[in-house]
Amino acid sequence: MKMKNPPHSKAKSPRRPAHPRPAVAAAPSPPAHPDADADLNWQIISLLQEDGRMPFSTIAEKVGVSEGTVRNRVNQLREQNVMQITAQVLPQAFDYTWNSVVFLRINSAASLEAVARRFADIPEVYYVVHMTGEHDLAVTSFHRDRDHFREFLNRHFYGQPEILSVDANVNLKVYKMKLKWQVMALDAD
After folding, report:
1. CB under 8 Å to 85, separation ≥6 — which residues?
2. What are the residues whose beta carbons fall under 8 Å from the beta carbon of 54, sequence distance 6 or more?
3. Does residue 142 contact residue 102 with C-beta atoms inside 8 Å?
4. Other Cβ atoms closer than 10 A to 63
5. Alpha-carbon distance 104 to 90, whole Å?
6. Averaged pLDDT, groups of 10, the chain, 189 residues long
7. 141 burial class (0-12, 13-18, 19+ CB within 10 angstroms)?
8. Do the beta carbons of residue 98 and residue 146 sit within 8 Å?
9. Which helix (H) or strand (E) holds 76?
10. Which stretch of DSSP H or E encloses residue 102?
């Protein structure tokens, strides 16, 4: 017959140590080949560059690892700012057919960083670089038409005391505009 504890007494719980030990994860085993991790990362990145919505299960099947491994690698690469998964908008679909690049010489008394940040905040601008050579900055942007480009120049470039010169150009034809960058292809040479 099982006896119950009297109502005024507390049931004893198993004794626990005062300070529990933290769990220690086993050290990961090194890859079979030193570049195996980098190779797998690049395979995953390459597939996502082709289709950013590709299911992890499909990627896993293509590269020969588990879906969980792919999920963990993608999360790790995103957390380490190695890659981002974003939607690429085609400006032409919204009637932004004028692609321009404007080269600038900046007044030496002005803050180049502040000028660059100001241009980076403009919605039409998609690329701002500090460069060597005759010009200090290059600003690339998309526009609806010639009038939109002219208004853009008047509003943001001309008459600004920090800008010494403006060399405005319209790209007549784009032969390559590839955001799929691969360092492995460059290292193979």
Report:
1. 48, 52, 74, 78
2. 47, 48
3. no
4. 17
5. 26
6. 47 45 40 67 90 94 96 94 83 88 96 97 94 97 94 96 96 79 50
7. buried
8. yes
9. helix 67-79
10. strand 98-106
In this structure, which amino acid lies at residue 170? V
Go through 21-59 and write b for each residue having 16 or more CB atoms within 10 A of its CB, e for each that does not.
Answer: eeeeeeeeeeeeeeeeeeebbbbbbebbbeeeeeebeeb
Please list, in sequence order, all residues whose beta carbon lies within 8 angstroms of the beta carbon of residue 124, skipping any fewer than 6 positions away. 96, 141, 142, 143, 152
Ranges assigned E (strand) in 107-162: 125-130, 137-143
| Nearest by Cα to 148 from 95, 103, 104, 105 | 95
Q: Which tokens sit at 120? A: 């980076």
